[in-house]
Specification:
This protein has about 220 residues and is mostly helical. It has three domains: about 70 residues, no CATH class; about 45 residues, no CATH class; about 90 residues, no CATH class. It has a two-stranded parallel ribbon. It has a two-stranded antiparallel sheet with strand order 3-4. Strand 3 and strand 4 form a beta hairpin. This is Periplasmic binding protein-like II. It comes from Neocallimastix californiae.
C-alpha cells in the first residue's frame, strides 16, 4: 500500500491502519501482511504533484509494486482508467454503506474505484473574543461576515492594531487553493440538498466576485 502525508496526524493514521489490519489478519488466519510505503517530506518534494506523478506513472506502466493506493479524490478521474471496479469484488450491501458523500468521491462513470479512508469537512471559525469585545454575533452569511469584519478591523485600527486579518480562507500556493475555492462555491448552492453550482454558471461568477470582494476589503496582506 502506498500513500502520502505531510502532516503527522496522517502518518499516525496510516500506522494505526497497518497495525490494526495486520492484527486482524493474524486473528482470522489470513495469509496477508499489509506493508506501507509513505511518501513524505523526507523522501519526496513537498508537493502533491510529486506523489501524483509517481503513482500515475506506476499505474500507466501497469507496475505491480503496490496493491492499494491512498490518493486524494482530486485524482479520481485521472486514476480511474487504471483502477479495478470494486463492484466486481465487494458486495452491494458493503458498497451501500458508502452511499452519499463517499459515493460522490469514489465513483466515476459508474465505476466504483475507491472507498474513503476518511472524510474531511471544512468549518468556518470565528474569533469569539473579538465578537464579544464589540458585541457582534457569529455571521451566518458572507455579507454579514464582511460587515462584521470591516467594523472590527476599523475599530482595532483605532487602537493601533494593524495586523488583524478579517478573513483567512486558506488559499496557499498549490492545489489546496482549489479545494478552498470549491468550498466557497459550495456555500452558494440553492439549498442544503442542492449540488455544487457548475463552475461556469452565473452562481459561480457571483460567488467568486464575492470572494474577491472579501479579499480586497478585509483580507489584504494574506
Amino acid at each position: 500500500m502506498a500513500g502520502q502525508a505531510f502532516l503527522k496526524s496522517f502518518e499516525d493514521l496510516y500506522t494505526l491502519l497497518r497495525k490494526e489490519f495486520n492484527n486482524y489478519a493474524i486473528r482470522e488466519g489470513l495469509d496477508i501482511q499489509l506493508k506501507f510505503f509513505l511518501f513524505s517530506i523526507e523522501n519526496t518534494t513537498n508537493q502533491w504533484d510529486s506523489f501524483d506523478s509517481a503513482i500515475h506513472t506506476l499505474l500507466q506502466q501497469k507496475k505491480q509494486k503496490y496493491d492499494i493506493f491512498i490518493y486524494d479524490p482530486l485524482y479520481t478521474r485521472r486514476y480511474s482508467p487504471h483502477l479495478v471496479n470494486l463492484k466486481e469484488y465487494l458486495s452491494k450491501d458493503h458498497l451501500d454503506m458508502y452511499l452519499g458523500d463517499s459515493e460522490k468521491l469514489g465513483v466515476y462513470k459508474n465505476k466504483w474505484v475507491g472507498l474513503p479512508l476518511l472524510l474531511k469537512y471544512t468549518l468556518l471559525y470565528s474569533n469569539i473574543n473579538y465578537l464579544n469585545k464589540y458585541q457582534r454575533t457569529v455571521p451566518k452569511t458572507w455579507d454579514q461576515l464582511l460587515a462584521t469584519a470591516k467594523y472590527i478591523l476599523n475599530e482595532e485600527k483605532k487602537l493601533g492594531n494593524e495586523k488583524l486579518v478579517g478573513y483567512n480562507g486558506y488559499f496557499p500556493d498549490g492545489e489546496s487553493s482549489m479545494c478552498s475555492a470549491y468550498s466557497f462555491l459550495y456555500s452558494y448552492r440553492d439549498s442544503k440538498e442542492s449540488p455544487i453550482p457548475d463552475i461556469n454558471s452565473k452562481t459561480a461568477e457571483e460567488a467568486f466576485n464575492k470572494l474577491l470582494q472579501i479579499k480586497t476589503e478585509i483580507s489584504n496582506g494574506i
